[in-house]
Amino acid sequence: AKKLRLILGDQLNSRHHWFQKKERDVIYVLMEVMQEQQYVMHHVQKILAFFATMRNFAHQLKKLGHEVVYLSLDDADNQQSFDENLNNLIEKYHIGRFEYQLPDEYRLDEQLKTFCHKLEIDYGIADTEHFLTTRYEVRDFFGDKKSYLMESFYRSMRTRLGILMQGKDPVGDKWNFDHDNRKKYDGKVPLKKPVIYNHDVSALKTMIDKMGVKYFGNVDAEHFGWPLSRKEALQSLNYFCENLLPHFGTYEDAMLNEHISLFHSRLSFAQNIKMISPQEIVAAVLGEWDKRKDEISLAQVEGYIRQIIGWREFMRGVYWAKMPEFATLNFFRHKNKLPKWFWDGNTKMNCLNKCIGQSLDYAWAHHIQRLMVIGNFALLSGCHPDDVDEWYLGVYIDALQWVEITNTRGMSQFADGGIIASKPYVASAAYINKMSDYCKTCHYDYKKKHGDRACPFNSLYWNFFDRNADKLEHNPRIGMMYKTLQKFDKAELQKILEQAEVYLGMVDEL
Ligand code: FAD
Ligand code: SF4
């Protein structure tokens, strides 16, 4: 009897052992299903990039001589859900055994487990052979600790993998070089264009329109720049190592009106669908550093490697340690709706206009734009974490729940009460002005806390601490904020808090 092997849309790992030899009795299946288009509304580029890459992947497998069934969204046989399609294929091809790779999403993991329990044929589960850690390694590492400290996990990863180590000690005698990094962009180093692959996805777009898929965001050739094959993913990795790595860390927190990505790698999509692996990225970065130690400082290399072997693996581990409860946490009991300009970028606040506008145009924004501009505003203005999650999960090209929800609900919204972050990531206009040129051309005045054209971030910032005193006052990392608050002139504080109330009452018009 034949074996049926399911490949999910984020499991396009051509180096997986499944594909290393031709097996005559194996049929691979990839499917575009409505089920996956509807659990949240996605950015149009995300749908197109997933479908196009899945199609390329199926094509490559066929070229290598594997037997592949590809169900496109408009295929007459497509029942639009994994279960129904799988049942049909099992019957059609007289399948005797079903196999799948561990899904990275809790929802799909549950669905496939339930599906298999009902199966009358034999089944098996394989690892995705992508991550550096197993699902429950982070949970076991921290045991029953209340909060998880990424830095200690990261150090253990460095030690275990022997990355940037001299014996037991870190290369350069420090584990973390953040202190040397994270500068404002000063124009000293010329910016490079982000790599954009000009793919024509118009036929695919016509197909999803015909099928009535609901989506948001924009797409055109100039903005649709995603690597859609392993070859292109490797090209992006090379481009990053040669051109961007030398300044990655220095400017990783900087933001500009006129440039969307500065020195960020934009490799998250290729990684999250497993076209390239963390090992390959680390090897390429270390290889580049080895060749150009005089040009590339350790701070750049360590900063980048920490994102890959630290943050990324850590977030995945937190996800498996804390789901499904994690998705229900709402520490501040926030309940506001997202302002309506989250869907069109149409706000007078220039930083949000640029960061959201860019997210809608490119399905991508860098970490600080997601955290310190968009997420910061959502948190200060008390948006419900469900709505915040839904938006982030929909809008970003790299958004898969395991890495989205941990960043959004955990790191950015502090809805987990401090499992991931030791304090809420909130900031007033002073931070945004320090790290960007957004404030220079803004309708609002970043220096003002109240009154005409006062920047909303300023009053909302103090309102946030004031309204959450019971929850935050005793946090050792923010206690000093409350000391500052107590020292405020009473009348001045009153004006700031009144200003915040006015803004909170008109967020859609800001
Ligand atoms: P670079 O800045 O070049 O970093 C390199 C790589 O490090 C990334 O490709 C990514 O794989 C990894 N990385 C860096 N930071 C993180 C992090 N915090 N968590 C996990 N991996 C990280 N990343 C996603 O992949 N998917 C998401 O849905 C997602 N949602 C986010 C939501 C919020 C509110 C925040 C604050 C961050 C989110 N991130 C998410 C993390 C980070 O912003 C993106 O990984 C990054 O912007 C992707 O662009 P890049 O490849 O150029 O990253
Ligand atoms: Fe954003 Fe305020 Fe600066 Fe305007 S002044 S760009 S709203 S931080």
Tag the structure with descriptive keywords:
510 residues; globular; two-stranded parallel sheet; 5-stranded parallel sheet; alpha/beta; Crypto/Photolyase_FAD-like_sf; Serine Threonine Protein Phosphatase 5, Tetratricopeptide repeat; binds iron/sulfur cluster; Rossmann fold; DNA Cyclobutane Dipyrimidine Photolyase, subunit A, domain 3; 3 domains; binds flavin-adenine dinucleotide
Bound molecules: flavin-adenine dinucleotide, iron/sulfur cluster
Strand order in the sheet with the most strands: 4-2-1-5-6
CATH architecture of the largest domain: Orthogonal Bundle
Radius of gyration: 24 Å
> Helix/strand/pairing class, anyone?
alpha/beta
Secondary-structure element order, N to C: EEHEHEHEHEHHEEHEHHHHHHHHHHHHH
SS elements, strand count = 9
Organism: Mucilaginibacter agri
Protein name: Cryptochrome/photolyase family protein
Pfam families: DPRP
InterPro entries: Crypto/Photolyase_FAD-like_sf, PhrB-like, Rossmann-like_a/b/a_fold, UV-DNA_repair_photolyase
Molecular structure report:
This protein is an alpha/beta fold. The chain has 3 domains: 2-126, Rossmann fold (3-Layer(aba) Sandwich); 137-200 and 228-322, Serine Threonine Protein Phosphatase 5, Tetratricopeptide repeat; 340-509, DNA Cyclobutane Dipyrimidine Photolyase, subunit A, domain 3. It is 45% helix and 7% strand. The chain has helices at residues 34-38, 44-63, 82-92, 106-118, 137-142, 150-161, 202-210, 230-244, 268-272, 278-291, 298-322, 350-362, 367-380, 385-395, 401-412, 429-435, 456-467, 469-472, 479-487, 490-504, and strands at 2-6, 26-31, 42-43, 67-71, 95-101, 122-126, 165-166, 169-170, 215-216. Strands 4-2-1-5-6 form a 5-stranded parallel beta sheet, sandwiched between helices. It has a two-stranded parallel ribbon with strand order 3-9. A hairpin with a 2-residue loop joins β7 (165-166) and β8 (169-170). α6 packs across α11, α14 packs across α15 (401-412) and α17 packs across α20 (490-504). The longest helix is centred in the middle third of the chain and has 25 residues, at 298-322. The protein is globular. The model has no long low-confidence stretch (mean pLDDT 96). The site of flavin-adenine dinucleotide (FAD) has 27 residues, from α9, α11, α13 and α15. This is Cryptochrome/photolyase family protein.
